[in-house]
ABC-type spermidine/putrescine transport system, permease component I
Amino acid sequence: MTAISAPAAPAAPSLALGRTGTATVLLLPIAIINTIGFILPVLNLARMSFNEALTGGGVREAFTLANWAGLFADSFYVELILNSITVSLGITLATLVVSYPIALYLHRSSGRWRTVLTVLVISPLLTSAVVRTYGWIALLSEQGPIASSIAAVGLTPPRLMFNTTGVVIGLTEILMPYMILSLLAGFGRLDPRVEEAAMTLGAPPAKTFWRVILPLTLPGIALGCLLCFVLAVSSFITPKLLGGGRVFLLATEIYDQAIVTLNWPLAATLSMLVLIIFGAALAAYARVLRAIE
């Protein structure tokens, strides 16, 4: 009796392609999208920054460093760059201070209460930043509830809109969900048993926080600070509305140069400068992570 052998099963496509081929196939769509949607526009932006701006919004094809040289020779733009970085760092620090206790409490909570808190943290992201900014305009205006409450106790309410204070308040609240989620993602190294061991050995709560909790949560702090700083530097609508045209930041100036003045080469130069700041922030983040590890 002759045995009939079963037909060989076809090889799986992933095995036929091999690891390199499978990785190439999987990465090809996102590589094409990034090339079309990010790399090519950035290269075009970089090329535009070396063109010459003409009166009336015209652009002459050239290769001049006048835009870059004029950027650092003009005291207005030097102050604009320093002010943008300083304000963004201040917003990042304020966001970290108000978000850290919330993230730590959320990390330690459990059960249904943790679910409720998580929904409350994420829910602001479901609302547009424009709507939330208009909400802050209603709160911070001279006839708003904050100014009225301060005036009701006999004090002179400070000016909370159309200045840097309003921009910092609005962006701090808008960026809080990003900071909290970043902190939670970096709290993986925070083991409650380590805290309990420190408390058992007689460390007071403050010392436990500074010597145990804070070092273990540094990766989350670094990630949250990077994300919020990048978002603060590139934010436009909130500084435009709450600043009232009196707070000059890089994003608002790029808009004015591109849309109002029609100086596209200068707008492209400022945009490339923002990308350079992002690169510096990423390099600082990588260095901090290496120092932590």
